[in-house]
Amino acid sequence: MSTTAWRLRWFSLFSLLLAQPAFAQESSAIESAREKYAPTIRSAGLDKDFVSPWTGFGGLSQGCNGIVSAMARFPDGRIAVGGSFSACGLVLANRVAVYDPTTDAWTNLGSGVGSAEFSEIKALAVVGTELYVGGSFSQAGGVPALHITRWDGNSWSALGGGLNGVVNALAVSGTDLYVGGSFTTANGAPASRVAHWNGVTWSSLGSGTGEGVNGIVYSLAASGTDVYVGGVFLQAGGVPAARVARWSGGAWSALGSGVGVTSQGNWEPVYALAVSGGSLYAGGQFNSAGGISSNRIARWDGANWSALTGPSGNGVNGQVRYLADAGGILMVSGGFTQAGGLAANLNAQWNGLTWSAFDNGPSGALYALLGSGNDLYVAGNFKQVGAVVCNYIARRNGSGWLALGATITNAPNAHVSSLAVVGNSVYVSGGFTAVGAVPANNVARLDGNTWSSLPGATGISVLMQSGEDLYVGGLFAGVGEVPANNVAVWDGASWDALGSGIGVGGSSSDLVMALATSGGDLYAAGRFSLVQGINITRWDGASWNSLGTGISGDFVAALAASGSGLYAGGRFGGYQHLAYWNGQTWSSLGGGLTGFRDSVSELLIDGNDLYVAGTFNFAGGVPTNNIARWDGQNWYSLGGTGNGTNGPVYALIKHGNDLLVGGNFTQAGGIIANNLARWNGRTWSSFGNGIENGVSGSVVALAISEGKLHVGGAFTHAGSQPSYGFAQWVFPEVPLHLDGFESPAP
Questions:
Q1: Number of other residues whose CB lies within 10 A of the CB of residue 157
Q2: Are 715 and 698 in contact (CB under 8 A)?
Q3: Could you say which DSSP state residue 743 is in?
């Protein structure tokens, strides 16, 4: 049973602390899965009667598995999306994908855009039938492409030598593409933060001292042959133009006195531009336009600036980041709570005369808005719109909100961080809001093939079984109707608190990351500093008690109890990230882990041995790559020269005489093992061969019941089977090939 895997659990509670995407979006290991898992079983050379050893639960059928930050519409109505995802619907899609509203299905665009974690998609535009993608990346479909690329329907191509800086915005005027960002050259020639692509060659906007703008461009909008530019500049083509300007007829011009106060320099940026109802709207972080009070949004009618006034004030009370026209209605999104004095949380709409709230809108911030006929597409960092589970993108038509993609999955809609088996039920926690078609906030129960939710469980990230009870930890102030601070117990029918709990419920300073039981006591650990313990505490059935002075450090992420003793691991320097409690005092284990940024993610006791897993290269001076064994006296590696794994280990469980290991790696003991491997005491082996080898992303939780290995994490496929975040491997295995793959497990 996995009780830790701190990285993914911490991400599910604090995405900013572990951001990359989308662990984003969900795991960078997923990126390589497209080429590996896209072939069908038959095209992989397997017999049509082949049965995979994996049981898949289906892909993410609706929306995407990470933030969607940009959208564009093809002439036939299809919607292109870009962001920090690796899958949309049932297809693997590396940062770009296309949704077809006529079939309610997703398709990918080759191998997508970008290859590194820092690659980012910021803007999309369609010219004719071709899709242009801008952002921060260096390749698309394996072809070098600096910050901008083109998809012609079949393949990716570069636009000459590309740009020497990030692209923030794209706009189309006729067959011409305009590009804005932080670059200073296009195809090696001067192009100050804005450039023009005619389908064949690059050109600057203006020449000499009259070329481009003198600050970063964040937004573009086109109206006929006029192209509007917004950002943090004060000059355009040498002409004074405060943060917004127009390019028309081969010349630059200002829009009155512009936006904001000129003396503020790079402050008061214009982040968004949109044309709606014949007027240009500008949004950002400013308080005036054309010298009049205009809070973060203003309208230009071709001659003058005006504010967008409501019943008790103009504009909004926080920055505006995104604007879009939807059938003559201006959609506004940003960091505000009021619009025109009316309550409007993050999103609002302006009909040309009055403000109104975005009723039953997305549950989080919007990063992109797109009008398509009478439909409005919204995308950003949210998983629900009203009661509709949609995963980072949704569509509103005349009948209400719709998710994008058919519901044909039995999988969670986000990563899984912990597993526990109670009786015949498998409990699952993670960052999801639904499993299959069942709404379930962060925790769910699987009985056979049927999912059910637990009432009112939000913020749970750690699960642990004890008898017939399920103990849970995380970051919450209550479960169901029961107040409970960050720790609680479920008896199969109802929730109970454990005294006053741990710290302040929902406080980021009081995070529970690991649980363990021994002799009737419950131990809880994580990141907290309380009278009842620093980073670790004990519940005796009546009250919480400290264990000596506790463990000072970043956090405790793993616990394992043995008799009257308790092992604790995490990231803390006092005991070299690993400590033992004998009931009276704390002590270190044979020198522990000596690396400054080492950390322990999982502990497992097997007889007289303790297995330690995490992110480290040495234990007590012995080379041990991310996993080691302590026999009470000495440290040992698992394997010879190629010992351990080539990436972090997050989950451990015993099956018979074998130790099963999950994490974020591609090799174990020098053999290919995709994020899941087995150690028999002498050698390493994988779970499956070829296309069936392991899963496509990080494994952070393992559990066994009824002859099945349950696997949780951030992946899209298990072997050849689409299976989002959760999958099963059935014991005993049958050899798949003639090369000696795995003897049957006991």
A1: 15
A2: yes
A3: P
Q: Quick one: 608 exposed, middle or buried, by C-beta within 10 A (0-12, 13-18, 19+)? A: exposed
Instruction: Tell the CATH superfamily of the 416-730 domain.
Output: YVTN repeat-like/Quinoprotein amine dehydrogenase (2.130.10.10)
Look at residues 683, 596, 613 and name the one whose alpha carbon lies nearest to residue 648.
613
Residue 264: predicted pLDDT: 67
- What number is the average pLDDT over the span 567-578? 94
Both structure tokens of 445? 């129960």
- pTM for the model stands at 0.75
The set of residues, in sequence order, having a beta carbon less than 8 Å from that of 416 and lying 6+ positions away, is 428, 429, 430, 432, 700, 701, 712, 713, 714, 725, 726
In the chain the first and final C-alpha atoms are separated, in Å, by 19
Answer yes or no: are the C-beta atoms of 240 and 259 closer than 8 Å. no
* Cβ atoms of 358 and 348 closer than 8 Å: yes
Residues near 638 by beta carbon (within 8 Å), at least 6 away in sequence: 624, 627, 628, 629, 644, 659, 669, 679, 684
pLDDT tens digits for 592-630? 997 778 999 999 999 999 999 999 999 999 999 999 999
Beta-ladder partners of 292: 289
Domain range annotation of the chain? 205-359, 416-730
Gyration radius of the chain's alpha carbons? 28
Scored b (16 or more CB within 10 A) or e, 681-700 reads eeebbbbbbbbbbbbbbbbb
Annotate 562-578 with three-state secondary structure.
ECCEEEEEEECCCCCCE
